[in-house]
Amino acid sequence: MKANQLHRSITHKDLFKIATPIMVANVSTPLIGVVDTIIIGQVPDPTLIGSVAIASLIFTFIFWSFGFLRMGTTGLTAQALGANDHEEIRAILGRSILLAFIIGLALITLQKPISNLSFFLLQGSTQVEFLAHEYFDIRIWSAPATLTNYVLLGWLIAVGKAKHALGLQLLLNISNILLDTFFVIGLNMGVQGVALGTIFAEYTAVLVGIGVVLRAQSHLLGSWNIQRILKKARVIKTLSVNIDILVRTFALLIVFSWFTATSATLGDTALAANAVLLHFLTMSAYFLDGIALATEKFVGESVGSRSRTNFVSVAKLSTSWAVGVAAVLSFLLMIFGPTIIDFITVTPAVREVAKDYVNWAALAPLIGVWCFQLDGIFIGATATSAMRNSMLLSTFLFFITWIFLERFGNLGLWIALLSHFVYRAITLYLRLPNVIRSIDL
How large is the C-alpha radius of gyration of the chain? Predict the structure, then answer.
């Protein structure tokens, strides 16, 4: 990309050229969990849905604790692109893949203590825990591939290869759905089949993905340079950004883990109902994340090219679209939510409880869009210390809110979760002027 292209204003077309493929790719991701839940949900036993919820939660917590591999890669690469530093664009890719592989091997090595801690913290009924253990022992072997896929996705988005990222995500998600269906329905393997399907899909995607990024980077100037990849100052910068995002992500996952763990204490029916409703939240969040990811890319380029004007323009343009999309999503979930619940589960008790709280879940896109967008802005600017501090404070306030609302049971739990979105948006917005002023003109 030529330097003068980086300084022009970002248009609606530019935004959606990146955002639309990511939306399509992202919205297919939670469909994996929905399909798993639909398959298990055809058996009228809420403990089976609960076991899928617990098993999925553990790996959401483990893998998304390392979500910085995607977010950090996008922000740093976009800034290098904005600065027209092609060798650094390539070096960030190599640096991040190396880090992902090391972390993946470490997770496999430490699987026993991780498993013990996970099931100590997330206690369900005996049957739920038994099935979740089976899932864990298989799925953990996908760690290197899963984390490397985060890096590949983040890098492709940053260099403007959104369609390539879409292709990889669709390959991963569709193959996962097909393999899960084969193992679970065809071979009657239960949660073991879900775990095996995911492993095969992850390694297929990473092998294809490496080929895609190697071809994409061949158009960059310069060449691979191991000294550049391992340069001390660059490694420290990468680790600093990633550790901030790690702490931020860990705090976020604590909130959702607490939500699910507390749901379990309210009974298997409440756990199953909330698991169904969380699919609404995750699907809308993944959809809105398409705009947030495009924001990361263009904000990162603006920072790299030292254009404060473009920074502000991107923030305003992307946020206006995100809010509009969020409003539509909330409206659709309020109208069609009960029908979707009936489709996901056949258990009458689960249906009844889920419908009682469906409107609270439907509000999540409209309330959460503000913090999603601010996350994208701060990641693109690599203002990660501010993100970290915001999330830590918001998580503290979430627990304070829950203490006051605990007597309301599941209703209090949903209000506390939505309040967490509000706390994140406010604390990030208060720091935004400092981020803008930090851009060198």
Answer: 21
In a domain, 72, yes or no: yes
Map the chain to HEC letters: CCHHHHHCCCCHHHHHHHHHHHHHHHHHHHHHHHHHHHHHHCCCCHHHHHHHHHHHHHHHHHHHCCCHHHHHHHHHHHHHHHCCCHHHHHHHHHHHHHHHHHHHHHHHHCHHHHHHHHHHHCCCCHHHHHHHHHHHHHHHHHHHHHHHHHHHHHHHHHCCCHHHHHHHHHHHHHHHHHHHHHHHHHCCCHHHHHHHHHHHHHHHHHHHHHHHHHHHHCCCCCCCCHHHHCCHHHHHHHHHHHHHHHHHHHHHHHHHHHHHHHHHHCCHHHHHHHHHHHHHHHHHHHHHHHHHHHHHHHHHHHHHCCCHHHHHHHHHHHHHHHHHHHHHHHHHHHHHHHHHHHHHCCCHHHHHHHHHCHHHHHHHHHHHHHHHHHHHHHHHCCCHHHHHHHHHHHHHHHHHHHHHHHHHCHHHHHHHHHHHHHHHHHHHHHHHHHHHHCCCC
Of all residues in the chain, what percent carry a pLDDT higher than 90? 26
Looking at the 3D structure of the chain, how many domains does it have? 1
pLDDT at 88 exceeding the cut of 90: no
3 occurs within a structural domain: no
Classify residue 337: in a domain, yes or no.
yes
Single-letter amino acid, residue 13: K
Q: What is the pLDDT of residue 30?
A: 53
The amino acid sitting at 344 is: I
Q: What is the pLDDT of residues 314-340, one digit of tens each?
A: 889 999 999 999 999 999 999 998 998
**Residue 2 covered by a domain:** no
- The whole domain housing 110 covers 9-437
